[in-house]
Specification:
By secondary structure, this protein is of the alpha+beta class. Helix content is 29%, strand content 31%.
């Protein structure tokens, strides 16, 4: 089972570009040298292409590291200094999540295709929710089945949290489920947002037996690093 480790980093304005260059040129290539790591992905938001509520601010950088198992991730942390693995510049703060990714096929596909298109729209739902199990079950059995009809969509993923030892890494979040939809371009994503499928998605959430708690929705450009 692939395990996806996410690190979300906020930064002061003067450190945004240096932080992104550091992770693109040093951190991602170094992580790929490790036997436990399958792939590394960097998510960066564009000011001109931000679609989120005015009170929400995306991280300046989101890092995804795919490993073979939770034991592989624990080995990485156990064998390395945290500041060397994931360096932070002055004024930066980081939070982490660990997930089991679930891939869903889009309309017209028998099986999910590899994630290759580079515009990712990442959604996270957080505590507090009255009944987490019921909310997550409803989401998994309803929302991806509607997302598949979005025009020009390339991939659908959901992310189920995996508990990490509190002593490992950075502070965690209270995320109960994540979702990612992938498109070739920001323009394709905007077209999907304006489609009638978006109305069906809103209606689906309104009939959920458990109301959603706090949530975030951020559009990112993604850069993939493979061995």
């Amino acid at each position: 089972m692939t395990v996806a480790y996410f690190l979300d980093i906020t930064a002061t304005p003067e450190n945004v570009d240096p932080l992104r260059k550091l992770y693109r040129n040093l951190v991602a290539p170094d992580l790929l040298k490790r036997d436990e790591v399958e792939s590394v992905h960097l998510f960066v938001s564009d000011k001109a292409e931000r679609l989120f509520d005015s009170d929400q601010k995306p991280p300046e950088l989101s890092l995804q590291v795919d490993v073979r198992s939770i034991e592989s991730l624990q080995e990485i942390f156990a064998g390395s200094d945290l500041a060397t693995l994931f360096p932070l510049l002055d004024g930066c703060k980081a939070t982490q999540d660990c997930f089991e990714p679930i891939h869903f096929p889009v309309a017209g596909e028998a099986e999910p295709l590899p994630r290759r298109a580079l515009l990712s729209y990442n959604v996270r739902y957080y505590q507090s929710v009255g009944d987490v199990k019921t909310f997550v079950e409803f989401y998994l059995t309803h929302h991806p089945q509607i997302l598949t009809d979005l025009p020009l969509i390339r991939n659908i993923l959901c992310y189920l949290p995996i508990q990490l030892d509190d002593q490992i890494g950075f502070p965690g979040t209270s995320c109960i489920i994540g979702n990612e939809v992938v498109f070739d371009t920001f323009q394709d994503f905007r077209a999907a947002q304006l489609s009638d499928v978006r109305v069906r998605l809103r209606e689906d959430m309104q009939v959920s037996p458990v109301p959603a708690g706090p949530n975030t929705h951020f559009a990112f450009r993604r850069e993939d690093f493979f061995k």
